Design the sequence.
């Protein structure tokens, strides 16, 4: 069945897969010492214009979040996150299992605001009982957010300024970073992230790879981070699997090209939905589109196409998510539009 | 440079890679709900002759050990392991980071003995202060061990009997299981493991896959094990990556065929070494061979071929490891022998 | 300086101290095996009319919460609590440090509502992504709450009913339980708590003891709970210190008598405040009273009497807490009233 | 029954108890801000001749070990300890529950040796796979040890030198410190401990207090240590309980006087045992004496006096422990000798 359920429904971009095939039988050392990992890291450093960055290639998003966050916090510190942040919800308590509280901040379509962060920090240290509480030891945000929304440079700079004033690291979860960088109008770039973040990830799994997230530490990683990775079960024996994929993604701008393609598909999807009178739940500039459907229509559509149920809006309506990716073909968007039209017609005739 | 450094120096077996390519653009649900994972699990169940087995596909060995062990133990329990067990040494404290002690048992070339286990358990419960101590809550062993050695059916059955008497689970780490199953003279089989173990893994990473370990629970997994996997950062969004690989490995006996090939290569290596008068540190029936070299010869060889330094034997001699795998070609063994001969000649002429 | 800062400003009730003195040099076994602990537990069981209850004596409140909660939860479960619950705020992340999320519920002057709990549980299991999230594995509530408020029997029964429907334990933190049991109009009793709770504590530290909380498990404690206590550093070598105190507190109803005394003092305090026109922030039936003061008056009062700052109400006004206890003398209330009058007069003259 | 079972069979020294009574109803702030805690810390600093020391008063030994160790280690570090160290055995995995491995070192009647420590550290960093292993991040030792044995200044200085070379903290568990400081011939002093240790405890529970250990950080505590204490459930609301006791113990040298008394009692016990031909298992210069008894004699003695079974020596003989303390009276030693004589006579007549 046609699927817009998520942005990990296919395998890898053909060029990524080809790189795995081309290098397959060349002997390489393990644990990230292979030449592909080294090359990938060089290319990422170049794309970031940050020669001093330390980079580590990890398999998955929760794994990357868990490993980076637990390595950056002291035992009595917690991580501040939007209440809807991935670490606060859908990572099954991975952060808490490593001993740390996720401290929630109000969210605005998945985003946090510098003023809320400043209030939280100001209030915390103004409260005389604060030594009895978990201290906010770092800030987590996702970009794009879980709602597909994006921060501007100005917003991130302001959040980073608050973090700086309290000397706590800012960590950006870029599981879908490509789609954020290539969104029209987006002004955030890799070099800019190196300026404002203590750490961020460049997601591969949802942007053309079979698996893999690159964790970037522009000003160096915490002491012994390699051992942290091992301890968290996140060290791939065949680091080449991650190295070769990221090497391919950062050769000739593939990562950016395929992200741009996804954005074009998202725009086509959005136009098609709006032309048909569908209400968008929010204005997402990236590859995830949230649509309001009435319950009956949702039920009928579910028989012919896969998408994600996001929650109830009211008694009769639901919010659903359609995701596109580097792999989405224009034909798939067109087919979806046909299905929408046919479903509508069937309902009118009913 | 020619490498016998480990059994993960290459990518995947060509048929495994081909399966990834063949299925690459077919849309599939995430998180292990894809049809390849379902098919792989069916095939593994069939190979195990254990239709009730619950199976989960994880990316790596430390990850699998950490996830299974922390899900099986209660907070005040620890896991018994050979002092040389992988979890006791080279997993960077992953088990302790999940809150549990690794309780060491004497090892004999990497193996534990049922009588030592029985003593440990008997003594523990005979000690009136035992409620002040971590209780032995499960047993971990690796097969093949870190020294390439193997248990017999009788040995495993006896260990399982002791576990049963104390009602604690037996978990077998099969990171190199294929090489153990296909070693000539070995009597342990997958169905037998289903009888004696509460859980075991079938290693893919070192036996033909890019990554992946199948965790098998013959009598069912702990409650909520899927969530455990997520919490430990071990849930692949693109479960298809693991599913397609294991599906290929368990099609037409590929897993066993390539394991057998490695064993033949190991035997050729062993014969070649013995014919040249090298002393084996121990008699390994699997794909890892441990050889005694004098320090000078080791240094000269290291310039031309990669292998692992395992430790000092005495002032003048070291133990080194040569590993072969599914990917080792007869030509590589032949080339190694030439290098050994040339090095020897050069030393005699010196 | 006269202090209403908290309910632990003095040592122990004289009878409790006397018991320590009387038993001081009698040799006793350690770790809670002393005869005073045994006697105290018998008396608590009798007061609970629950002969099957298992009881453990621990030193402090955070320690008791941490030990009980981490023993009751599985690794992927969290504990539901009012957002203002002690474990959610002022225990420095003790629960998270043991690996578990505190799942917040709306609070109404410190209390949770059964309907909110039911919604949280219903919504959780209705959400198809719930296996990716921490599951609500138990419910925590405090009685009296951090705001001095109390549950009724009907309210607790309804919360227990929801817990029962989802088969999760209900745990009641009774750090100030005496003040809740003896509040006029309160209908909750120890036997009732044994009916509705899987576990609850009877606080000693704030109700007449130097230290000590009794953890009561009406239907038995989790397996190996003694070892849990030890692991959490909560096992007193001289268990007699806790035993003798609780034995004194549960002899001839001392625990209830001194709680009633505190309630009378609280009522006198409340009457005095209301007679002087002070606004109570909320209607607390127990030993903590929350008063609205304007900032200037607060500053002047702070020079002459200790109380707790609870937070800002608006630009000009703060909420402060006056706590009384078993140790509060009528003269102290009278003296406080004089200070209030003198401060008022001074302000009027200024 | 007469008991030599342990050194915590009685309550507190009468002067300690008196101090609690004298201060009982004086209002004090909580959480260690009381004047008794401040005074106690001043007196301990004076006894240590270390005005810069930061001192925290905790309730129990496991609690103190757990809190100090988890605050000093980074997540990938473990603590080196004698295999018989309290943290390695009888603390129920408290250290592992906080995420850290206890790395065992050979023990010699409970003591570790600087050369073994140096080897462990040298070998660790010489092993090229060390980034895959838990790094030795601090050293734990107990003084007196679990066997009553003592380090000399020279031995501790040498251990500290090795720690210094690897820049890892040395932590000394002084649960029975008084008995070590006052043993005749002992050259270790509090000021010396301040020189060589990063942290150490001064045990109260076994040396005259109802409960309480003072954690001393001669060169300052880890950042936020107060919050660590809270997080571990180790912060007493009524810090006065600990403060008043340590204040009494460090007034007019009480701590040292009562320790000396115990040592005299131990010497009398030892003389009495030796005069009667008993074999001491080892030569302990402190308050714990280990004696070899044949099984039958042990069984008969157990009917009349309490002592601890320490383990089997061979088929017919056991090692048992007789402990004395600040509370032991000469009459108790005399009575024990009578019982020994009577038991012997009865056996001879049988």
Sequence:
């Amino acid at each position: 069945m046609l699927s817009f359920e998520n942005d990990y429904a296919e395998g890898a971009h053909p060029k990524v897969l080809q790189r795995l095939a081309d290098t397959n039988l060349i002997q390489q050392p393990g644990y990230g010492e292979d030449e592909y990992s080294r090359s990938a890291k060089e290319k990422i450093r170049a794309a970031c214009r940050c020669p001093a960055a330390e980079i580590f290639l990890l398999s998955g998003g929760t794994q990357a979040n868990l490993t980076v966050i637990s390595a950056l916090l002291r035992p009595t510190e917690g991580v501040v996150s939007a209440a809807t942040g991935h670490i606060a919800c859908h990572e099954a308590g991975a952060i808490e299992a490593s001993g740390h509280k996720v401290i929630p901040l109000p969210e605005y379509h998945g985003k946090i605001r510098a003023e809320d962060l400043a209030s939280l920090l100001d209030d915390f240290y103004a409260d005389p009982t604060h030594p009895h509480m978990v201290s906010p030891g770092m800030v987590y945000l996702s970009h794009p957010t879980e709602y597909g929304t994006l921060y501007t440079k100005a917003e991130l700079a302001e959040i980073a300024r608050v973090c700086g004033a309290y000397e706590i690291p800012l960590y950006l979860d870029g599981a879908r970073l490509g789609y954020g960088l290539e969104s029209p109008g987006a002004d955030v770039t890799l070099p800019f992230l190196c300026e404002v973040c203590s750490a961020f990830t460049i997601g591969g799994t949802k942007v053309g790879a079979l698996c893999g997230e690159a964790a970037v530490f522009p000003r160096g990683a915490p002491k012994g981070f390699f051992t942290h990775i091992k301890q968290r079960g996140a060290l791939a024996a065949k680091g080449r699997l991650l190295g070769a994929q990221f090497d391919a993604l950062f050769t000739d701008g593939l990562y950016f090209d395929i992200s741009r393609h996804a954005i074009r598909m998202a725009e086509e999807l959005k136009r098609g939905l709006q032309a048909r009178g569908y209400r968008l739940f929010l204005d997402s500039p990236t590859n995830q589109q949230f649509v309001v459907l009435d319950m009956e229509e949702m039920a009928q559509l579910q028989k012919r196409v896969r998408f994600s149920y996001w929650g109830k809006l009211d008694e009769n309506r639901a919010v659903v998510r359609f995701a596109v990716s580097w792999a989405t073909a224009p034909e798939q968007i067109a087919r979806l539009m046909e299905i929408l039209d046919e479903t509508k017609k069937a309902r009118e005739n009913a």
Observations:
- Chain C has a mean pLDDT of 97.
- The first helix of chain C runs from residue 14 to 23.
